[in-house]
Design goal:
Layout: E1 3-10, E2 13-19, E3 24-29, E4 43-45, H1 49-62, H2 79-89, E5 97-98, H3 99-110, H4 117-125, E6 138-139, H5 152-161
Parallel strand pairs: 1-4, 5-6
Antiparallel strand pairs: 1-2, 2-3
Helix pairs in contact: 2-3, 3-4
Length: 173
């Protein structure tokens, strides 16, 4: 399967976007942890409709507004990660959810007594379509800003851009 990439320059740094030719399969801040984890060895730079839509989404987002559409997404992940990512897609703009809350939603859906928040954290951290699948909106139950592959400073900047109430959050030392 051929894969394609393109680039976007944001106010927080360069972003690489990836596609299978039809859907968005990746979006990473350049140099972040797990960068390009869904890319195979072969890919090429190409202009695609999904890239133009993604860049439009990013333009709106980085202007401080909530985009009213989502480019076509294809999640390349395990079923568990897809479940976590689907929950993240439902977190409203400017709001947050804890790892524990996501774990609780999954345990209810699966009929389990409980689900590990750490397992959820691993799935959140390996999100291959950052920003659009808003892993930056997931926080620790104690208000700690942890676990953002793009860097905690970017996580705080993204939440600030969305006008989230960041007064209740802290960066663990």
């Amino acid at each position: 399967m051929m894969q394609y990439i393109d680039h976007y320059d944001s106010s927080l740094g360069g972003i690489t976007i990836a596609s299978d030719g039809e859907s968005l399969t990746g979006l990473w801040f350049d140099g972040q942890k797990y960068f390009g984890d869904t890319l195979s060895g072969e890919y090429e730079n190409r202009s695609l409709l999904v890239f133009e839509q993604t860049k439009q989404w990013l333009d709106i987002y980085f202007s401080g507004k909530e985009p009213n559409f989502t480019p076509e997404l294809k999640m390349i992940a395990t079923e568990f990660r897809k479940e976590v990512w689907e929950i993240m897609l439902a977190i409203p703009y400017g709001q947050t959810m804890t790892y524990g809350e996501i774990a609780e939603k999954i345990s209810l859906k699966r009929g389990l007594v409980r689900m590990s928040a750490q397992a959820v954290g691993g799935a959140v951290g390996h999100n291959s379509i950052s920003l659009i699948i808003p892993c930056h909106r997931v926080v620790g139950s104690d208000g700690s800003l942890t676990g953002y592959a793009g860097g905690i400073d970017k996580k705080l900047q993204l939440l600030t851009l969305e006008k989230a109430d960041t007064s209740k959050f802290f960066i663990p030392r």
